[in-house]
Write a structure and sequence with these properties.
- The chain is of the alpha/beta class.
- It starts with a helix and ends in a 23-residue tail after the last helix.
- Helix 1 packs antiparallel against helix 14, helix 3 packs parallel to helix 8 and helix 10 crosses helix 14.
- It is globular and about 70 Å long.
- The chain is 28% helix and 23% strand.
């Protein structure tokens, strides 16, 4: 035990770059700003063409990642039983527009007529084929949430088989209620894909989300991006948008006015409202399959009793490729999102490969996060490790680290599992505060690759530093985050020269994430969800699709 403790102390010093070596000897294992900057500058350069899945940019990116991991001494980890596989295939179904699509939405029953596509309604193909000819009776179902743990079911009391459901995005705001839906932090039940999956499971043929009048696009109809295996099993044919003004016209004479109906949907006693109108849709898209890959490397554990268990560290390599020019620039470089997390993950792979832990550590460089967390979904549902062998996921996809050294850390999900105590212990050792989610309303925990792990029952964290930066004004980081979200997020200007402010923060982030990974990988007990958390290990191992 004493020897293990000394090894752990030495490794933490390596991660922090403070190993007590003679002054003249540079530490070859320390994570440095030079290392992080060089990799990020390269990975987010125009050479990689925006790193779009299935493109030449992907081929360049995955080849680079494999080369680095192999050079660090990791083992290929993409396929159980195949010691040479670094790449896990991920096939993604997308839909492109078809200029010949009729885009018809016909009403019958209590009222007849048509809804105008692009003004009243907008379609999206949710199936595997390009032709969509279907319809059903319209039902307004509030927020479309079925949350048994909160005693909430917007779908209760109505048979959804063959129906088209109209629902609102998000989840109810319940002032003073500290139990339901996590207060200011969005719960898992706000997740759009989860709502769609539940309504499809109950037999709905279509789902329409209520949006303000005047906000719909007239662009050609496209469709959901889904894993090929999921799309072929779908019963739901389409999703889409319906304006609030169109919904108001569709309400039955005896129904409350639209405003009162929407307000009623935010109360627990709400029940679905059949509209007495049938909607039939007719439209067409062109299905396209994108063939992409996760990059996966593993450092085997040293303890024979624990080596079969894995801590998965993840970051997504994909960005938006080459797209519509903005100010003359058409390459969406993705420096902060998520070149920053990818380069920190590479640095941790290099260091930890020289210092294996009791449990195995797997490094997942996922594809198609920007298409809906599809690479992480493919890993957890069909990858080399069954979920029951994954003890935790630490996901690196924040970017605040590029804004300098902080006095605090703020990982998302710490209130859900015993990983929260691990974070507090590590932070205390680094003399850092643990702050709550500074952007709780954004729901970032639900929008990153940690989420499919959590849905499958794996305790997970969205790793992040806080916003209390050293040497700048108190509101500096918050102002920079808002500037990034409004001007650079998912735009060509997310590039190194614009978003990288101070790589000392990235080095600090690597230190923090590495220490948490070491603590989890070397602890005698697995992390576990806390009682009452909205995620739990399922009784039957598997994944949530």
């Amino acid at each position: 035990m004493i020897r293990r403790a000394l090894v752990a102390v030495t490794l933490l010093s390596l991660l922090a770059g403070t190993c007590p070596l003679p002054a003249q000897a540079a530490d070859p294992l320390a994570v440095t700003t030079a290392e992080l900057g060089a990799r990020l500058r390269l990975l987010s350069s125009d050479l990689f063409e925006g790193r779009y899945p299935g493109s030449r940019g992907e081929a360049l990116t995955t080849a680079y990642l494999v080369s680095e991991l192999a050079g660090f001494g990791l083992r290929p980890g993409a396929a159980a039983g195949d010691s040479s596989a670094w790449l896990q295939p991920v096939s993604i179904l997308t839909h492109e527009g078809d200029s010949t699509s009729p885009n018809e939405a016909r009403l019958s029953g209590r009222m007849s007529g048509a809804l105008e596509h692009g003004r009243d309604i907008r379609f999206a193909n949710f199936g595997a084929t390009g032709e969509v000819h279907t319809g059903g009776d319209l039902v307004f179902a509030g927020y479309g949430i079925a949350a048994p743990m909160y005693g909430w079911d917007d779908l209760a009391g109505v048979d959804l088989h063959g129906k088209v459901v109209i629902a609102m995005l998000g989840e109810p705001d319940l002032p003073g209620d500290t139990i339901r839906f996590n207060g200011p932090r969005a719960s898992r039940y706000a997740w759009l894909t989860g709502k769609v999956r539940e309504m499809g499971r109950r037999g709905a043929v279509g789902v329409l989300w209520v949006r303000p009048a005047g906000t719909l696009s007239h662009a050609p109809v496209n469709g959901a991006r889904r894993l090929v295996g999921d799309s072929t099993a779908a019963g739901l044919a389409f999703t889409g948008l319906l304006t609030d003004s169109a919904l108001a016209r569709l309400l039955p004479p005896d129904a409350p006015a639209l405003g009162a109906l929407l307000a009623a949907a935010a109360r627990p006693a709400f029940r679905p409202v059949p509209l007495g109108v049938r909607l039939d849709v007719d439209f067409r898209t062109r299905p396209v399959v994108i063939h992409s890959h996760n990059v996966i490397g593993t450092i085997p554990g040293t303890d024979p009793r624990l080596a079969a268990e894995h801590v998965v560290l993840s970051a997504h390599w994909d960005a938006f490729g080459i797209g519509s020019p903005v100010n003359g620039d058409s390459i969406y470089n993705g420096a902060l999102d998520d070149g920053s997390g990818t380069t920190v993950l590479l640095a941790l792979a290099r260091v930890l490969a020289r210092h294996p832990q009791r449990r195995s550590i797997t490094f997942l460089f996922s594809t198609a996060e920007e298409m809906g967390l599809l690479g992480a979904q493919a890993f957890i549902c069909g990858g080399p490790l069954p979920p029951e062998r994954i003890v935790a996921n630490l996901n690196l996809d924040d970017g605040i680290e590029l804004m300098g050294v902080k006095r605090d850390v703020a990982p998302l999900g710490i209130e859900l599992s015993t990983l929260g105590q691990t974070v507090r212990d590590v932070a205390a050792g680094m003399r850092l505060r643990v702050s709550p989610d500074p952007y709780a309303a954004e729901g970032f925990f639900l929008r990153a690759d940690n989420f499919p792990f959590a849905l499958a029952g794996v305790p997970s964290l969205y790793m992040a530093l806080g916003t209390d930066a050293v040497g700048v004004a108190p509101d500096f980081v918050d102002a920079k985050v808002k500037e990034y979200m409004s001007q650079h997020y998912h735009r060509p200007s997310d590039e190194y020269a614009i978003v990288v402010l101070d790589l000392a923060g990235s080095r600090q982030f690597a230190d923090f994430a590495g220490r948490v990974a070491i603590a989890v990988a070397s602890a005698p007990a697995r992390p576990r969800w806390l009682p009452g958390a909205e995620f739990q290990r399922p009784a039957t191992p598997g994944c949530a699709r």
